[in-house]
Amino acid sequence: MEKWDQQTIENFRKDLLHWYDKEGRNHLPWRKNTDPYRVLVSELMLQQTRVDTVITYFNRFMTALPTVQDLAKAPEEQVLKLWEGLGYYSRARNLHRAAKVVAFDLKGAWPKSYEDLLTLPGVGPYTAAAVASIAFHQVVPAIDGNFFRVFSRLLKIDDDIAKPKTRRVFYEAVAPIVDPKRPGDFNQAIMDLGTSYMKTTDPDTLHSPVLTYNAAYRDGVEDQYPVKTKKKKPILQRYQALVRYNEEGDLLYEKRPQTGLLADFWTLPLRPIASIEELEGVQLTVKPITHVFSHRKWEIWPVQVEDTGKLADNQRFFSADEQAALALPKVQHKILQELKES
DNA sequence: GACCCGTGGAA
DNA sequence: TTTCCAAGGGT
């Protein structure tokens, strides 16, 4: 691992921020100002999610709920509808809870330090550092995937970034490098660097504004960084989806459990099956609907079943209009699309 | 520390 | 088609 002297650190800050001021992504909507609410919403949306995907969601969300008080007062259905399709829905519920803490419990007085921000639901080490540095000028490194990638190459850090304890290694190495005058810009500059000249695949290191600081490139081993172990592939789960209409043509839904995958969302009743030999109704499609989550792959066979009249506690019929108003997970939209086409 | 939690784009 | 992964956090 490389160790920079004070002069190198100061030169790096200057070169990095000079480039950032010239070529940084200052057009991103959440960079219009450093209102902590805007920063928090954007950071929650950006967790494990691409910038291009988030932009539309962010603008829509801020238009509908411009202040932390608006979000705190909003019904959860509205928050989830605004989040619909973005995934990782616990982020939306945590953001909602965090807004209630700030607006109600703290009466609008934002936590400003890294430690206090950490206490908000949905705010972990990265997000606390991002909000603290960008909105409140706290001098802390916001260590995300970009940060790992950039500094693993610059400093030739060999630790596996997939392991939680590696965060400490990076923190120790980089905390002294964060620019104390512009910590928020420093962190965002690293992110911009990590998605451009120093991106994951096909980086353009030769034209990087910090080429001279890149130890991995200097040694011809840049393609070996960052060190990261692979994830496991999703396991297959097979279901039949019960398609059941009442006399009005409303469609039967079932509310999912309060915990676990797609917690509290409405979908068609899903029943696990070992094979399509077990299908209990009229098979509606030749091929199954498939949907991949981060750790599971669903294979879904829609089957038409008779309306028995009796409903379980967690079941309800919804009209077309009611379905349109619900926040539904992507997999349910896929099922609806398939029913429309068959 | 290991596992859980969504989605869409790229190669 | 398959695989990887993108501004992580909760349990």
TrEMBL record:
**Listed cofactors:** [4Fe-4S] cluster
Q: Which InterPro entries match?
A: A/G_AdeGlyc_MutY, DNA_glycosylase, HhH-GPD_domain, HhH_base_excis_C, HhH_motif, MIG/MutY, MutY_C, NUDIX_hydrolase-like_dom_sf
> What keywords would UniProt list here?
4Fe-4S, DNA damage, DNA repair, Glycosidase, Hydrolase, Iron, Iron-sulfur, Metal-binding
| Cofactor detail note | Binds 1 [4Fe-4S] cluster.
Tell me its EC number(s), please: 3.2.2.31
- Reactions accelerated catalytically: Hydrolyzes free adenine bases from 7,8-dihydro-8-oxoguanine:adenine mismatched double-stranded DNA, leaving an apurinic site
> What highest taxon heads this organism's lineage?
Bacteria
Q: Does the keyword Iron-sulfur apply?
A: yes
Going by the record, the broad EC class of this enzyme is hydrolase
Q: Where is the HhH-GPD domain positioned along the sequence?
A: 45-196
Q: Which family does it belong to?
A: Belongs to the Nth/MutY family.
Known function: Adenine glycosylase active on G-A mispairs.
Q: What is this protein called?
A: Adenine DNA glycosylase
Q: Which organism is it from?
A: Fructobacillus parabroussonetiae
